[in-house]
Design brief:
Number of domains: 1
Number of helices: 1
Strand order of the largest sheet: 1-2-3-4-5-6-7-8
Largest sheet: 8 strands, antiparallel, barrel
CATH topology: Lipocalin
CATH superfamily: Quinohemoprotein amine dehydrogenase alpha subunit, domain 2
Helix content: 10-25%
Strand content: over 45%
Radius of gyration: 20 Å
Distance between the termini: 54 Å
Length: about 130
Amino acid sequence: MARAWLVALLLLGASCAKQDWIDRTLVTVDVTGTWHGTTTGPGTSVAESGTQELWLDLEQAGSKVTGAARFKPDRGMVQSGPIEGTISGDHFSYRLLRGSSYVELTVSGDEMTGLFSGRPISFQRVDASSRR
């Protein structure tokens, strides 16, 4: 009887570990393409405020994403440059390869929303021609 309980516990534990692994690696969205985003609020200095535009050029391979982020107009901001990120479920997070910017977004079709430096940001896919 004790052996049956032990086997049952081992099987239950194995199935829980497998579910966690699947949750971490599940990719349900494709972010490949060019995205246009806007964010509003205070800028990086007291003189800057209002709406800022951000463009993302992304290429996705499985759960890994590479590309570039660029602000318009370019004010020499640290947030522009090459990025790398990951997809987990419908969440896309990326970091700037130079600097410390880290962004987390929720993807829904051709839209992404999230926070950038504490400010709400929303993106629309404007070109999906790179998508497979």
